[in-house]
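Bug #77: duplicate submission created two jobs. Keeping one. Sequence:
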Amino acid sequence: MNTTEVKFNNEIKSFDELFKCAKEQFIMYEKLEGIEDWDAYNFSIDCSADQMMFKDMLQIRFIEELTEASIAMNENDEHFWEEIGDALNFFLSAYCMLDIDLSKLPNPDKILNRYYHAHSKIKICTLNEYSIRVYPIIEKVGYLCNLLKNRPWAQSNFLVSMIDFNERLEDLWVTFWEFLNYMRVSPTEVFEMFWKKYQVNLHRIRTGY
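Kept job's structure:
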């Protein structure tokens, strides 16, 4: 079951509602992955195991979906946008992992409306154009995660420079929403994109898919 197989009436009307659903979804999946109570889990960006968890969410899952979207460009628009929706989910999950107030970050609504045109979202015409727009995201993910130096086998523990981390975290945040803005995705379309995948994921969790 995926978003191309079902139709849902979108119930998300604001980014605050989207962020709330993203956090609830993140906690449900963390439970499936072994953390029974995320609120009681003492996540620390200075801990090597937690750094690897954060890197996995951004460098592997998030980037993998952006890559799958590039492959889907040769298939159809629905598949392409489903992969972008998956990337959005993992992107938000990485930020939820840090337990920060997403509403305190630059408002996606303002970024998406900055150069927004009235017509609906588009698929970039060529893979080359898509790659040019996606690479800055990949670069900023790597730049952010480069601050996370601790490894399970290392005998020394390096504290993360939170000034640099928060600065790069915000820079990545803005870059991703600017990418969606370039794709002519409106806030309403973001809500619909997320809501469809959110409902599919709830179904998968309930049915053990």
